Amino acid sequence: MSDAFFTCQKNVLLSKSTTTQIEGVFAATRGRLLPEEQEALLQQWVEEGAGNLPARESVPAAEKVSVTLTSDWLEGSELLMTSLSDLNSAPEVTQCTGQQLTELRALASSALQDDAVTELAKSAAEETVAVGGSAPWAAVVPQAGHQIAGCATVDVELQNEDPAVLAWSLACDAETVPTKTPDWPIQDMVQLCPLPAEVPYHETLWRDWEDLSVQPCVLEQVSKNIPLFEFRVMSYNILAQDLVEQGLDLYLHCHPDILNWNYRLPNLLQEIQHWDPDVLCLQEVQENHYWEQLEPMFKEMGFASIYKRRTGTKTDGCAVCYKHRRFRLISLSPIEYFRPGLDVLNRDNVGLVLLLQPLLQEGLDLKAVSPLCVANTHVLFNPRRGDTKLAQMALLLAEIDKIAKTAEGSYYPIILCGDLNSVPDSPLYKFIRNGELSYHGMPAWKVSGQEDYSQKLYSRKLWAPLWPSSLGVTDNCQYVTLCQPKKPDRRKYSREFLLQFHFCDVACERPPQLVHLEGVTDAKPDRPAHWPKPAAVVKDPDPQPFIPSHFLPQKGRPEVTTMPMGLGATVDYIFYSAEPVENGNRGGRRLYQDGALKLLGRLSLLSEDVLLLANGLPNSFCSSDHLCLLASFGLEISSLREG
Ligand code: KL2
To answer: What is the CA angle 547-226-591, rounded to 5?
Structure first.
């Protein structure tokens, strides 16, 4: 509780700071308050509605229900989706002037030099296992017997001499009567940096914890006395600093100082430490920041970490971290989506797939829990290249299929995290949820639903097959080498199967501005009388009201996970495997129910209007342009079979 308190108060205190240096770690902030001040502020915070912190061991009951869904791209094993994201954000509204922007660029370029990529010099060979040849990523081998209980304290040493950080701090000092006169030109700084309006984050950016442990499937588990292995998963696109500096035009709404890595790093670490996930999937992790700062910090926090940098020249990549007292690494696969010579796979995005063995506490010797497959990816951003996004996802699914398949041919529970750069109900999203997608003839921009290019007449289209057979991946997103050999007898294809090869509906939509030629129509012809009648639609025996997902019922608004240029969108997800409900379909979505893996709770997201009150993303509380997603899961623990 107190960690949460210091997290949310830190930046308010920072903006009031009377020192000339920013202290970015809550530990430092904590030290500056008298115990009675801490107590009073904590009390105030609690009274004002704090309480979104899920207790580590006991999860209180509540009535919120969330989403669940899935896909059955794997037979019988479905990826259920729940979108989860993060918390804090707060105040300041600053419009940068041209002069500010020039200053910002100057500061940014000096920061860039500071951040120059350094050679990875890993001496502790026993801690780092190279995988995939010379690829710059490593697996930290869990240290046997090394127990780190709970949440480790993180001390981040801020480089206070950074000019941008000092500028921000000075501006604040000048308004709050500095205790000493610094040597640099305060007035200039004050002009450059208007004082932010304070909006305590808990008044606007509060994120509720949605307790889902009261769902029937979980209650049933409790009544049967079947224990659960509980763990929390976080997915977070932390905004690579190089991408900030290469795209400053995207962040004109931000005060320059909150874009500084030395400001953002402690905020990001604090947020992770506060929510204390057991599995952490990060995107946009800059390589030098990972090796020099993040990986050592994560180690102190009890994480073993794995990193995979993007191919090509971009300096960021994905990381998966797991608490080594809770999981042991069984296997891992880094995936590079770039395939030379293949136009559809000509981008440098990557993914990671891990198989983790949950570690049970001592005293549960006769109990077993299934391995868990965790995948993490950052799919291509370009809204026009839906073809590439789909192909990237197919490669990830093929790797998951390989890693998560059991010796018996079923699947271990799967959690798929990432920034998919696709919005809810887009074709790519439906592909994951429903397990299939008819894409032949689909305009590529439609795949992600990010932007509407319908006015563009001649856009790239998707043609089946999307990738050549030389890729070695079937259209079921499985490696050819791992598929069952085909039966020798000739296959008989049903009419329904063959009809799948028609153009998909969306491909048959006429662009609105396309003028008809005389005598040409796109009206659908009537069904020929001699055709057999379509099969009757099976009625849902248990009709339930349609609950739109990715929607904040209390606020009556869509939830968002990112705010590019002030426009909110959901592109980040934590999908998890579940079981399809037979004949279950609600509003065109397949329905799923939790299987061995149960969703116990999630951190609610925020709506666009709420984030705009905090000046969008990033802001002084949220140090990325994405919110983090957090979910709590339970994995069934079963007794070991005798003999
Ligand atoms: O939404 V993102 O933002 O998943 O955080 O992933 C990409 C985009 C990230 C890495 O390529 O950079 C962002 N306009 C807006 N954002 C962009 C653009 C763009 N043209 N290009 C890249 N990104």
So the answer is: 20
For residue 381 and ligand 1, the question of a CB distance below 6 A is answered with yes
Higher pLDDT, 516 or 499: 516
Instruction: Determine which of 134-138, 366-370, 623-627, 634-638 has the lowest per-residue pLDDT on average.
Output: 134-138
Give the number of other CB atoms < 10 A from CB of residue 463: 12
Rounded-to-integer distance, Cα 52 and Cα 210, Å: 8
| Exposure b/e, 322-351, CB count within 10 A at least 16 = b | bbbbbbbbeebbbbbbebeeeebbebebbb
Check residue 179 and give its pLDDT.
Answer: 32
Q: How far is CA 512 from CA 191, 461, 509, 515, 537, in A?
A: 50, 17, 9, 8, 31
Ligand 1 contact via 419 beta carbon (within 6 Å): yes
Integer CA distances (angstroms), 397 to 89, 228, 478, in order: 34, 27, 7
**Cα of 158 from ligand 1 centre, angstroms:** 28
Q: What is the mean pLDDT of residues 33-55?
A: 49
Q: Flag the least confident range among 305-314, 455-464, 621-630.
A: 455-464
Give residue-wise pLDDT tens across range 63-107. 322 222 233 333 333 444 333 332 222 223 333 333 443 443 444
Cα separation, 600 vs 435, whole angstroms? 24
Please tell me the distance from the alpha carbon of residue 590 to that of residue 72, in angstroms, as a whole number: 9
pLDDT exceeds cutoff 90 at 278: yes
In 60-162, which residue ranges form alpha helices assigned H by DSSP?
A: 98-114
Name the pLDDT band for 489 (thresholds 50, 70, 90).
low
Q: Is 316 helix (H, G, I), strand (E, B) or coil?
A: strand
Surface-to-core class of residue 49, CB atoms within 10 Å of its CB (0-12 exposed, 13-18 middle, 19+ buried): exposed
From CA 505, how far away is CA 446, in angstroms rounded? 12
Nearest CA to ligand 1 atom 17: 381
C-alpha 643 – ligand 1 centre gap (Å):
55
Angle of the 2-15 helix axis to the 163-175 helix axis, nearest 10 = 80
